[in-house]
Specification:
Subcellular location: Plastid, Chloroplast
Shape: globular
Number of domains: 2
Structural class: alpha/beta
Largest sheet: 7 strands, mixed
CATH topology of the largest domain: Rossmann fold
Helix content: 25-40%
Subunit structure: Tetramer of 2 alpha and 2 beta subunits.
CATH class of the largest domain: Alpha Beta
Protein name: pyruvate dehydrogenase (acetyl-transferring)
Number of helices: 13
CATH architecture of the largest domain: 3-Layer(aba) Sandwich
EC number: 1.2.4.1
Strand order of the largest sheet: 9-8-10-11-13-12-18
Keywords: Chloroplast, Metal-binding, Oxidoreductase, Plastid, Potassium, Pyruvate, Thiamine pyrophosphate, Transit peptide
Number of strands: 20
Length: about 400
């Protein structure tokens, strides 16, 4: 049984629909047609100083994930993505008293995007610690706590704010295990929203995956569905390595049925979203849904694309990626990260180094433009890869 997913796309509210044997249906709907629980969640968020969050969800789309996924065949419960993150975090806090949460507004306010809602009341102010606006300080404090045996989860209200803690994340979090000769482990999770939102402005629309990917000693994963959000959250908390969990600001209200029983995903495995024969499309996070929208058009044109959500941005799952390249012999990478020095650039290099002999065409990478994200909605849309660009790229690669 395929389960329903709701996800924001930054597209007009006119209806678009598709179906094929692998990916069942897709439609764009206005926010007024969403259930009240979904419409009412995206409220302005008050926080320290002048920081505020804006309405995250103005429009949504309903997507059905592929029926072959094993977790769709089992009974379960429906959760929005931010609720799945919270459920995974809560399960780990129940399981391990060393797990704690640190960040701005994570306590009684429940987090800017409500990922930690209710946890302060359940676990107390020492395990769910509200902090001042001082990312470098509370991130450094969390790393020190990890050195003493705790397993802190650091919430960055926005990934862009964590640039203020880049020294702690790079020089301390990523390197202390090595520079201490293995005396210290740093089981820290750093998580929060990022990506191009809906007119959040340049400083709140940064795509910083490649910044963190370049840090030695750090693992990086990007969730794209409630199922993998929960599974990756639990895996990240249990890991003895520092992990950055990248969440997209427009996917928090994505809805899916997930299993009732406990599960933990691998931090180093990609997900096969749609098997195909003609071309391998590698993507992650929000672009997964732009790719799947393009896939319907491509199927109608006679193409059979294979879509892989790479999920693990460091290290890459070269086993899954390599097997796909050996089958299709063509690769298209679709990302929201910047073109210069982005995830796609690293992935292109890795594929060329390991699977060059299997390629029948040069690798093509579609990335966001190397500009600060404009505030104007139409200009913002132009900076990000759109489904028609994906269709055109596949047609050119498969000629």
């Amino acid at each position: 049984m395929a389960s329903s997913i709701a996800v924001s796309f930054g597209m007009p509210s006119s209806s678009v629909a598709f179906s094929d044997s692998n990916f069942v249906s897709f439609s764009v709907v206005s926010s007024q047609s969403l259930p009240p629980a979904i419409r009412s969640w995206g409220k302005p968020i008050s926080t320290y100083g002048t920081r505020r969050a804006v309405d995250v969800v103005a429009k949504a789309a309903t997507v059905q994930i592929p029926s072959p996924s094993t977790h769709d065949q089992k009974p379960g419960h429906e959760l929005l993505l931010f609720e799945a993150l919270r459920e995974g975090l809560e399960e780990e806090m129940d399981r391990d008293p060393r797990v704690c949460v640190v960040g701005e507004d994570v306590g009684h306010y429940g987090g800017s995007y409500k990922v930690t809602k209710g946890l302060a009341k359940k676990y107390g102010d020492l395990r769910v610690l509200d902090t001042p606006i001082a990312e470098n300080s509370f991130t450094g404090m969390a790393i020190g706590a990890a050195m003493t045996g705790l397993r802190p989860v650091v919430e960055g209200m926005n990934m862009g704010f964590l640039l203020l803690a880049f020294n702690q994340i790079s020089n301390n979090c990523g390197m202390l295990h090595y520079t201490s000769g293995g005396q210290f482990k740093i089981p820290t999770v750093i998580r929060g929203p990022g990506g191009v939102g809906r007119q959040l402005g340049a400083e709140h629309s940064q795509r910083l995956e490649s910044y963190f990917q370049s840090i030695p000693g750090i693992q990086l994963v990007a969730c794209s569905t409630p199922y993998n959000a929960k599974g990756l959250m639990k895996a990240a908390i249990r890991s003895d390595n520092p992990v950055v969990l990248f969440e997209h600001v427009l996917l928090y209200n994505l809805k899916e049925r997930i299993p009732d029983e406990e599960y933990v995903l691998s931090l180093e495995e990609a997900e096969m979203v749609r098997p195909g024969r003609h071309i391998t499309i590698l993507t992650y996070s929000r672009m997964r849904y732009h790719v799947m929208q393009a896939a319907k058009t491509l199927v109608n044109k006679g193409y059979d694309p294979e879509v892989i959500d790479i999920r693990s941005l460091k290290p890459f799952d070269l086993y899954t990626i390599g097997n796909s390249v050996k089958k299709t012999h063509r690769v298209l990478i679709v990302e929201e990260c910047m073109r210069t020095g982005g995830i796609g650039a690293s992935l292109t290099a890795a594929i060329n180094e390991n699977f060059h002999d299997y390629l029948d065409a040069p690798i093509v990478c579609l990335s966001s433009q190397d500009v600060p994200t404009p505030y104007a909605g139409k200009l913002e849309e132009w900076t990000v890869v759109q489904p028609p660009q994906i269709v055109t790229a596949v047609e050119q690669l498969c000629q």
